[in-house]
Write a structure and sequence with these properties.
- By secondary structure, the chain is of the alpha+beta class.
- The protein has a domain of 51 residues.
- Helix content is 46%, strand content 10%.
- The protein contains 24 helices and 15 strands.
- The strands form four sheets. Strands 4, 5, 12, 13, 14 and 15 form a six-stranded antiparallel β-sheet that branches.
- β13 and β14 form a beta hairpin.
- α2 crosses α7 and α6 crosses α8.
């Protein structure tokens, strides 16, 4: 180091040397890059790439706009979605973001001028979008991104773009959404006149308090029709469009008045008012009057909820589509039956008492046409209905209790050589390595009991003994054929008493019972038969799945014969409607942690005639030691069921059963047992015929199972 050289100077020299070295290296590299760039003409290729991307995106967005069915927009926005019943009679309407639609001539010019002055002054001089507005919006977007501001850049939407955004798009602030909005707006401008677009916008704008459309807003805030709005009133409504809650004249009168005066000033700037008139209108006091009557056309809430759910899950529509696009939805609804259910559910006398803490006993009911599976009425709960809330008839998963016995034990028994009066063991005994020991109610046993009596009285020990005899696998397979969703862990004897992992819904049980009411053919539950869009195009035409034969008519009839006894002599006698025959099964499940044998978690009454299947469930959503039904297992149940069937059966065809009650058949056979030799021979021949029929049914079932396994292995 030189004598007078400072250390910092030496460091500076070294830094400059490094910088100079990097500079020389960068100069050489850039020289090679430029040579490469010019040699392969990358600028031209970059321009071609950018133009290609723009072209492809424009072509895609144009295609999307052309296929968006913009021609249906006016009809979709002006018409509510209408629900029709099974007789094609109007049952109600669906709309959420929609109000009373009125033509432009019934909307005051004052509100038209106020909205255009505030939202889009150049509305009549542009073709769906504003270049100046878009430039301003993109500038704000870029600035906010660079400054890391979480702000909505907005400000570039014309009135047509706002209409398109609300009708077709989400509210997300993205460049992609904005591009789609522009192309759709151009297409809307190609299809509709400016008057049509303005009318659609005003009729579908949101004005707070759940009110959509200028007509309903006029009634809600000023107690008059839209055609009668004054300039100050129109300015209030126009001012609400940017913030319906912030400028609401009911909740925020001061802010609403201040915003109103701003709008009046904008109207003057836009030459829609003179300066003198504007000043006078700004001094007018702000008053409100409410004459708005909310829509009450959602008449059958649980049924309509189920229709919406099916349209979404089965046909791919969205809730917004269904509620706002003016569809005609034809359904399987029977309005008389639905009104009966709704009326009975409102009467507390039809249900067990609430708990000490006031918790309400819940319930669900569903009625179905067994010939095609069409649901005719449904109730998904008691108390206040929540739009598309929990529907216990379609969504709950509860233990079926003894109602599973016909599917898991008695049907496969008939298919394997048993018949209705076969003697079953009714003894307390244990099974398997885990010593599973089912018990009858009251620990009462009869030694032996005819099968029809074991079924109608819901004895547990004979059902388990029978399943063990025919084989658990046969019972498991049988229950699955009836549409019950069983887990692999359910393949055990407890299954026949309702001990299954996932549980079942009332709708699933009703669907399963259609096989008995329909001569052995299982039908699929459904609500919708046809959907027509606002332009009249059929978008869903439900041809229905053909009923699937899962058991022979012979077995179905014999099961019906036995289950008629449930309501004539067994556990369902109090649920039997006067002067009508009903077949079916009841079931209860014991509450866990409750020492009292009367502690019941679930109470079921499932029954049918040739014309209708109806299933009821009652219980608590959350069962605990204090929340359970005090209904002893093995006793008669069904007060609500009797009331429903008494009122609903007269609305059906009242087709009589073609089979006799097993109790009547047994009494007849017993009476003939002491007759002549020919009678004995005839009775013997009848039983031989039954055995042959059951054996043939078993062979057919096995053949069907093999075929299903074979086709399943082929991936069909």
């Amino acid at each position: 180091m030189k004598r007078n050289e400072h250390p910092d100077s030496q460091q500076s020299w070294r830094d400059n040397a490094i910088v100079q070295w990097f500079g020389r290296m960068w100069h050489r590299l850039w020289k090679h890059i430029r040579q490469f760039w010019h040699r392969f003409q990358l600028t031209r290729w970059l321009i071609v790439l950018i133009l290609s991307v723009v072209f492809v995106m424009s072509a895609y967005l144009t295609f999307e706009a052309k296929t968006a069915h913009v021609g249906n927009l006016k009809a979709a926005l002006s018409q509510p979605t209408v629900i029709f019943d099974r007789k094609q009679q109007k049952a109600g309407e669906l709309y959420s973001q929609k109000g009373t639609y009125v033509p432009l001539e019934k909307i005051s010019p004052n509100i038209q001028n106020a909205v255009l002055s505030t939202e889009d002054r150049n509305f009549y001089h542009e073709h769906g979008y504003s270049v100046k507005g878009l430039g301003r919006a993109f500038f704000l977007l870029a600035r906010n991104k660079l400054l890391h501001r979480n702000m909505i850049s907005g400000g570039g939407s014309t009135l047509t773009q706002q209409l398109v955004k609300n009708a077709y798009l989400s509210q997300e602030q993205t460049v992609t959404r904005k591009a789609r909005e522009i192309f759709l707006s151009i297409e809307v401008e190609n299809v509709y006149s400016k008057s049509d677009i303005l009318a659609m916008y005003l009729n579908n704008a949101y004005f707070g308090h759940g009110v959509w459309g200028v007509e309903d807003a006029s009634e809600r805030y000023f107690g008059k029709h839209a055609t009668q709005l004054t300039v100050p009133e129109s300015a209030v409504l126009a001012g609400m469009l940017t913030s319906p809650s912030g400028y609401n004249p009911v909740d925020q009168p001061q802010a609403a008045k201040a915003r109103r005066n701003v709008v009046i000033g904008l109207m003057a700037d836009n030459k829609k008012l003179s300066e003198a008139d504007a000043a006078a209108y700004q001094k007018v006091p702000l008053t409100t009057t409410n004459n708005y009557a909310p829509d009450s056309s959602y008449k059958y809430p649980y049924f309509f909820d189920a229709v919406i759910d099916e349209a979404i899950s089965k046909y791919g529509l969205t809730e917004a589509d269904i509620m706002n696009h003016g569809y005609k939805i034809y359904t399987t609804l029977d309005q008389d039956q639905q009104e009966t259910m709704q009326s009975l559910f409102k009467n507390p006398a039809n249900f067990p008492a609430n708990t000490a803490d006031g918790t309400m006993v819940q319930a669900a009911s569903i009625a179905m046409d067994p010939s095609d599976g069409g649901v005719t009425a449904v109730m998904g709960g008691r108390g206040e209905h929540v739009f598309r809330g929990f529907n216990r008839a379609t969504q709950s998963k509860r233990s079926p209790g003894s109602t599973i016995k016909p599917f898991a034990a008695y049907t496969p028994a008939l298919q394997n050589g048993y018949y209705y009066d076969s003697e079953l063991q009714d003894k307390k005994q244990s099974y398997g390595s885990n010593n599973y020991t089912p018990g009858n109610y009251g620990d009462v046993y009869r030694g032996e009991v005819p099968m029809y009596q074991a079924l109608q009285n819901s004895y547990n020990a004979p059902a388990v003994w029978l399943l063990n005899k025919i084989g658990v696998q046969k019972g498991y397979d049988s229950a699955q054929r009836f549409g019950l969703d069983l887990d692999k862990s359910d393949n055990n004897l407890a299954m026949v008493l309702g001990g299954i992992k996932n549980g079942v819904s009332p709708q699933t049980m009703a669907q399963a019972f259609t096989a008995f009411a329909n001569g052995g053919k299982l039908t699929q539950a459904h609500y919708i038969t046809k959907i027509v869009d606002a332009s009249g195009k059929v978008i869903v035409d439900n041809d229905f799945d053909e009923p699937k034969r899962i058991i022979s008519k012979n077995v179905a009839d014999e099961m019906t014969s036995m289950m008629l006894g449930t309501f004539s002599h067994g556990t369902g006698v109090t649920g039997k409607p006067a002067n009508y025959q009903v077949a079916g099964k009841t079931g209860t499940t014991e509450a866990d942690g409750v020492n009292d044998t009367a502690g019941t978690t679930d109470m079921w009454v499932d029954g049918y005639t040739p014309d209708i299947v109806m299933v009821n469930w009652e219980g608590f959503d959350q069962t605990s030691k204090g929340n359970h039904l005090d209904v002893p297992d093995g006793v008669s149940v069904g007060h609500l069921y009797q009331a429903e069937m008494t009122n609903i059966l007269p609305t059906t065809k009242q087709t009589p059963f073609t089979v006799k009650d097993a109790n009547v058949l047994a009494a007849s056979e017993s009476a003939s047992a002491s007759g002549n030799v020919w009678d004995d021979i005839q009775n013997g021949a009848d039983k031989v015929g039954k055995s042959i029929g059951h054996g043939a049914d078993s062979l057919l079932q096995k053949a069907g199972d093999l075929w299903n396994q074979f086709t399943g292995g082929l991936g069909r």
